[in-house]
Amino acid sequence: MATIAQKKSRRTASREARRRQLIDATMKCIARKGLGQTSIGDVATEAGLSQGIVNLHFESKDNLLTETLRTLANEYREQFDKTLEKAGPHPADALRALLEMDLKPKLLDRQKLAIWFAFWGEVKSRPTYRRICDEYDRYYDSVVEKLCAGIIDEGGYTNITPTAAAEALTCMTNGLWLSCLISPQTWDRNEALETIMSYLRSVFPKHFK
Fold it and tell me: Whose CA, among 9, 136, 194, 205, lies 20 to 30 Å from 101?
């Protein structure tokens, strides 16, 4: 017979699985209809569940959308950290690995891109969204800037600062993501990566040949 702890563990696992099912359904709805047009009813229909189940787990549409954004950001952070860990101690290797990661098909899934841009479009009017995105941006920027600082220190570069290099790379990546979203037929991953590498060769020629 199952113990109380085992039963509680199963209930917790079931609850988390249901919440994830609803978040996945929310992502599909946002990608298809946008944030404003996505309703609790849409999510329930997409998940094959009742609206009551959605309300039971999230209480409101705002909570559901916030947790969806947080899940998306956490998944990116997890992939980012894994890539950074595997890249090794050399800053140039780590920087290149992170930039390549940003252009991998798994991250450039058009559904996820549509969701990212939908939330980014709401950050000015939604403080909760802004806090989540700001936290993610600060972490990303700090890591990239630190890597650029390491490369500058190793190479004795004087033509650019770590902050300027990091900002340029962030702008390029965001622009390439947008291009992939709006022009998927003409967007090419290899060309996008070459665009970034051309910039790195121009500012860090000793490290990116």
Answer: 205
Amino acid at 80: F
The helix or strand, by DSSP H or E, that contains position 54, with its residue range, turns out to be helix 51-58
The pTM (predicted TM-score) of the whole model is 0.86
Is the predicted pLDDT of residue 66 greater than 90, yes or no? yes
Q: From CA 182, how far away is CA 177, in angstroms rounded?
A: 9
Q: How far apart are the first and last CA of the chain?
A: 65
Give the chain's radius of gyration (CA, Å).
Answer: 20
What average pLDDT does this structure show over 22-26? 95
* pLDDT at residue 139 is higher than 50: yes
How far, rounded to the nearest angstrom, does the alpha carbon of residue 111 sit from its chain's CA centroid? 12
| Cβ partners under 8 Å of residue 122, min gap 6 | 35, 129
Report d(CA 47, CA 125) in Å as an integer.
28
Give me the amino acid identity at 181. Answer: L
